[in-house]
Write a structure and sequence with these properties.
Low-confidence stretches: 255-264
CATH topology: Hypothetical Protein Pfu-838710-001
Number of strands: 11
Number of domains: 1
Number of helices: 7
Structural class: alpha+beta
Radius of gyration: 18 Å
Shape: globular
Strand order of the largest sheet: 2-7-6-5-4-8-9-11
Strand content: 25-35%
Order of helices and strands: HEEHEEHEEEHEEEEHHH
CATH architecture: Beta Barrel
Length: 271
């Protein structure tokens, strides 16, 4: 089995670097996600040629991330996504283990299927806790953007760890994130992703990135996937609905047990 981490490291080493200051933030964007094999990733990089650069900070181009997701005890946000509610959101802290820094991020389902991300610095707060300032930010954003009251109580449900390489289109506002080594944990169980697969996310202002055209020409089609929702389905044996194909292909089921937790472990009903 080809290790996708090794393949991505080789691809990144052969690409011109770009600094963080030149990477588009794209807080409001259209996303398309793909799951590809390591060999397909090599073909994609060859097709993109020198049009793309790789994000490099301090000589490093592959970065470790950890995210903690927050939800209600009955997993309201998970159920809203499973039911494809028009007004829905996800809340997480994201910690950049190599680059440093932590953010509290609120991702909203925007108009026409776009993703609107709002965030505040969170360096001085624990990754698994919501401060009063955090709750004020969440409440103000949900009311202002979606006209939703903040659900309570919100608490940590699970975490995801992974490594990321970011490729940047040097001719426009688009980027491609390439994630490997995903591990989903809830304090009781952990489920890893297959090591030979890469989760790609093409991000652009209008959803018309060159990467999407190249992948389509290669016969690769977008998939419906959310790290949080797939993790909930795998860790709590919940119905996966439209995520089922990704769950079966991408994650290695039957992960080992870790320390016990007081978090609710039952799958919520579909109410």
């Amino acid at each position: 089995m080809t290790d996708a981490d090794v393949v991505l490291a080789g691809i990144a080493a052969g690409m011109p670097p770009i600094g963080l200051e030149n990477v588009p933030e794209l807080m409001s964007r259209m996303d398309s996600k793909y799951i590809v094999t390591a060999s397909t990733m090599v073909r994609l990089a060859a097709e993109l040629g020198d049009r793309f650069a790789v994000l490099r900070i301090g000589g490093r181009s592959q970065f470790r991330y950890t995210s903690t997701y927050f939800d209600t005890p009955d997993l309201l946000t998970f159920r809203q996504h499973r039911q494809e509610r028009r007004r829905r959101f996800k809340l997480r802290t994201r910690t950049y283990l190599d680059g440093g820094g932590r953010w509290l991020e609120l991702k909203l389902n925007g108009a026409r299927g776009s993703t609107d991300k709002h965030r505040i610095p969170y360096d001085d707060a624990p990754a698994q806790a919501l401060t009063r300032e955090a709750m004020d930010f969440v409440s103000d954003t949900l009311l202002g953007e979606l006209r939703l009251p903040v659900p309570e109580p919100l608490g940590p449900v699970l975490s995801t760890d992974y490594r990321r390489v970011t490729l940047v289109d040097r001719t426009g506002a688009a980027r491609l994130t390439c994630d490997t080594g995903l591990i989903c944990r809830d304090g009781r169980r952990e489920v890893p992703a297959r090591r030979d697969l890469v989760l790609l996310e093409s991000k652009s202002a209008e959803g018309k990135a060159v990467v999407d055209r190249v992948l389509r020409r290669m016969g690769v089609r977008p998939v419906t996937v959310s790290k949080y929702c797939v993790a909930v389905a795998a860790l709590r044996d919940c119905p996966a609905n439209r995520w089922h194909p990704v769950l079966q292909r991408y994650l290695r089921r039957g992960g080992g047990h870790t320390a016990t937790t007081t978090l609710p472990l039952a799958c919520p009903s579909s109410r």
